[in-house]
Every structure is written in structure tokens, then in C-alpha cells.
Amino acid sequence: MFHRIQTVIFILLVCLFDRAYAARVENIRVTSRSFDSMVLEWSKGDAADRQFEIRYQANGGPWLPLGKTSETRKEITGLTEGVVYRYKIQAGSGGGWAYSDDLRTQLHAPLDISGFRVLQPAGEDILTLAWDDATQHSIVDDYNLQYRQADQESWLTAPVIKGGQTRYRLDDLEPASDYVLRMNAGNAGGVSEWILLSASTALPVPTGLAIKQVEDTSITVSHKAKADYIFNLSYRIAGTDNWQPVDAVGTSDFQIRALQEDTPYEIRARYTLDDRYSSWSKVLKVRTEPPPLPANVAQPVAAEITTESVRMLWSPKDNHGEVESYEVQWKASDSGDWFNKPVDAASYILDGLQPYNAYDFKVRAINKGVKGIWSPQISFRTQARRPPQLQIGGFSEVTHQSVQVNWLPVDNEHMTAVEIEHQQSGGQWEEAIQKDADASNSGRVIIGLQDKTPYTFRLRAVNYDRKGEWSENVQIVTSRKPIFF
């Protein structure tokens, strides 16, 4: 048993020693390459008569097996143009992996650029360039751009543009100038042919455009003139598409005349030179003056008030301006909803009102569509409905100092109170009860009378502030004051 254990330990030590000292591949290199293949060679060191295992990765991807060989040379085919490959090799004895450098297949030079153009509108010192994505049909590491003014010979070189881009902004150019541009694409395999393009920067946009004065139906506009360019101006009523050019333009101030009153306008400007023109300036917004305000109106007067209507009268209180018509406005005092009505004369009948209801009313003058200020507001109340006619129906509960006056039943829908008066022997009428708030009963007790005294009574119905006709007079004598023993 002891000898068997010694034998196993010896075998393990031999295997470990053999692995530790296994030969390691050296000097991995490419001796030739093309667009889709490479020839790989290496030194085998002490790994004679051993097989070699080869693996590879493309553009940093996962390691993939490539096979085994007993030679120190391997031709690898089926590769992709322009891809970076890396290889690792180890001897069959397991001496550890040896790694190559990054190795790239050959590249064709990029195809010529297509779609090279200027995006409009061009700026006064900027050209925005665009082109089709060349990486769709060839490998591009970068783009080269050069430019010069059309009347110059020396080319200026822009910073290198990375291969994935399809736009570039070229700035710090001269305004209103012609340029020649050229561009090509490049990679490790070479560069494409130059593609030429002609372009022009725009004229500068007018600055300092401002409204100097608005007077009646004319607008005076000022701007900072540039002597090298022709200044163009146009205007329109806001919200329309009809721009109108201004014929005569001064060097710094110019006037637009014969405009509409109280109308919003938009104004813009640009420079022109030969057949070129700048972008339009920022639009100015301005409104012409309205016609003069019409005359102010004095506080209206409520006349001919009935239960359902009223005639409102008013007149201008000054000669501030002309008056073509009026606008009246009214509402119930306890409501927030105003009603409007245009009228031609200085009076108006409001009808369809509610009896004994409070209303507010005001009016303003109008001239050429311009509305004046509202007059002072007036409040009024329509009449209450006529109360019913009351008649005394008799007396009851007659004592030496009081009596109940009764009246004949009536429809009391339009009766809010009853007034009762009395007199002694043709003397002055005196109020017995004034505006009794409870008019639903048909009798009232009158107190404070003298005993054995003749009194004449009369009464009438009241509906809010409207009083009915007096009843016929009726006389009664109070009783004797009782004597107690």
C-alpha cells in the first residue's frame, strides 16, 4: 500500500514539472496580408513536434477557435476588409497563451463622397455643410475639408472631421462672399478624390430696426443703414399674408403712410446686393392710433318708470369728440350679467322688466367704431303692481279704548301692508297703523282710543312703495269706561 501511494505522488510531480516547463510560443507576426486574408507565423521555441492551438477575436469581440496545426505558419482566409484582428497561440503541451499585436486587413480607399451640399439658408458668416454617409458603402476614418474665397488661391484647412459625421458648420466666414469648398474621405488605405462645391454666404440681417413714431395713420421706422447694401422694407396687417413693399426708403428714417386706423401691423426688412438678399429681420409689431374718442356721456336719467319698463334719457356732457351712435348696458342689481344693446338716439326704452325690481344702467358713445368711456352708472327700481282696493267690512271687539277694524276679503297677492287712519269729529287724520307687515289677515286692533268718543276710520292697501286708494269712511263710537265698586 505504501509503495502504491509513492508511485501516484511521483506521477503527479512529473506532470506538474512537465507543465511548468512546457515551451511557450514566441514572436507572433503577419508576413503578408490582403483585404480578406492574412499569413500568420510564429516561433515554436522548445515546443518541437507539438501541435499549436490558435484562437482569434475581431474588433475586440469574443475569442473564437481557429483550429490546430503542427506547423508554425497559418494562412487565414475569409476575413473582413478593414477589421482589426488579434490572435493567441499556445503549444499543445499547455505552455500558456502567446498574444499577437492588433492586426488589420488591408483597406480600399473610401469611395468618393456623394451629396456634398450647403444647407439653406446660409448665414452671413456661416455655411452649414452636409453629405451622404460614406460609411454605408466604405470604411471612413475621417473627412478632410478645405475652403477658400473664390477670388483667392490659397486653401484653408478645417479641423479633421470624424468618419461618422454627415454635417459640419464652417464659421468665421466673410459676409456676402463666394467660396469654393472641397472634401474627401480617408482611411488607412488612402483617400478618395476631392469633391468640389461652390457656395456663398448671405448678406447680413438689418439691425437696429425700430419704431420711431406712430402718428394717426402713419408709422416712422428707423434703422442702422449699411452703405454697401440696398435696404428693402415691407409691411402687412398682422395675421394676413399680403406683404406690401415700401417704395421710397431713406438712409435711416422712412415713413409708411395711408394705413388703417387702430390696426395692428407687422414690419420687416432685409438687405439686397445684385441677386443676393439677406434673411428678413425680426418682425416689428405696432398698432396705428385709433380715431379720437367720442364725447363723454352724462349720467342717464330714468323717466316714465312703470312696472315693466322705463325710458332712459342721456346726453353728451362735453364736446370732446363726435358721436355716431351709443351702446347701452343694463342688468338687475342683484345679478352680475350685463345686457348690451347698440342704439342710434340718446334715449332707450327698457321693457320686459320685473315689477318692483332694482336695475343698473349705463351708456357710452361710439364714433368710427371707437367706443368712449362708460357714463356714471344709475340705479332705479320699477314700480310695484297696483295694490287691491280695500273696504271696511265692520268693527268688532269694541271697548272704551280699542276697536278691531275689519276689511272685506281681497286677493292679497299684490299687497304687502295695510295703512289705517282715524279722525275725531272732523279733526285731522292720524295714522293708526302704518305699513302693517302682515297683510294676510283681514282685521287689525286699534288701541289708545278715548271712551264714548266717535271715530271715523279709513284704510288702504300698500304694495311695497305703491299705495292704493282710500276706502270709504266708516264711523264708530267707543264704549263707556267701566265703573268698578
Q: How do you describe this structure in short?
A:
The protein has 485 residues and is mainly β.
Could you walk me through the main structural features you see in this protein, from its secondary elements to its overall organization?
With 485 residues, the chain is mostly beta strands. The protein has five domains: 2-104, Sandwich (Immunoglobulin-like); 117-200, Immunoglobulin-like; 229-287, Immunoglobulins (Immunoglobulin-like); 301-381, Immunoglobulins (Immunoglobulin-like, Sandwich); 392-477, Immunoglobulins (Immunoglobulin-like, Sandwich), CATH 2.60.40.10. 4% of the residues lie in helices and 43% in strands. The chain is built from one helix and 41 strands. Strands 11, 12, 13, 15, 16 and 17 form a six-stranded antiparallel sheet that branches. Strands 3, 4, 6, 7 and 8 form a five-stranded antiparallel sheet that branches. Strands 20, 21, 23, 24 and 25 form a five-stranded antiparallel sheet that branches. A hairpin with a 6-residue loop joins strand 6 (84-91) and strand 7 (98-99). The model is unreliable at 10-21 (pLDDT under 50).
